[in-house]
Write a structure and sequence with these properties.
It is a single chain. The protein is of the alpha+beta class and 147 residues long. It folds into 2 domains: 27 residues, no CATH class; 93 residues, Ribosomal Protein S8, Chain: A, domain 1. The protein contains 5 helices and 4 strands. A 4-stranded mixed sheet has the order 1-2-4-3, with helices on both faces. α4 runs parallel beside α5. About 16% of the residues have low confidence.
């Protein structure tokens, strides 16, 4: 039996394959402000410039945590979708015997992002925007339950 016949038989048994993004878009089509799928939103935001920036240089860990809390609360209240946090590369960190990847603020920002309930995907900026001395963060959408 050739491969085409095997696929035909498989499709008859398994039934049609549905595109999960198309199904999600159809389910959310009636929700105001929810006309695009999550995948297209993500793609759009990855190319978007940050709408707000905070620079944590010169702050202690505790001061930076408090500043980030206020910054993210304000960004969420304003409905922002993407923000930039400048934390530095850690080159001047007081930790001895560590690589540049373990700067105090840099590690703290990663921890904050993991704990923040509305911080979504994140990553280090491109070299023009500070490289690994700054992080972009996509903020999660306010979602309403579909009933």
């Amino acid at each position: 039996m050739d491969f085409g016949k095997i696929l035909d038989q498989w499709n008859k048994k398994a039934g049609p394959v549905y595109d999960k993004d198309a199904k999600f878009a159809a389910l959310t089509a009636g929700i105001p402000g929810k006309s695009t799928s999550d995948a297209s939103r993500r793609k759009r935001l990855l190319h978007k410039s940050p709408e707000a920036t905070i620079d944590l240089h010169g702050l202690s860990r505790d001061e930076a945590w408090d500043a980030l809390t206020a910054f993210f609360d304000d960004a969420k209240t304003k409905g922002l979708e993407k923000v930039l946090v400048i934390h530095g590369k850690g080159n001047h960190s007081s930790e001895t015997g560590s690589s540049a990847d373990t700067g105090v603020l840099k590690k703290m920002v990663r921890e904050f992002i993991e704990r923040c309930p509305f911080a979504g995907e994140s990553g280090y900026s491109n070299s023009r925007s500070g490289g690994d001395g700054s992080s972009w963060i996509l903020l999660k959408e306010n979602r309403r339950r579909v009933r």
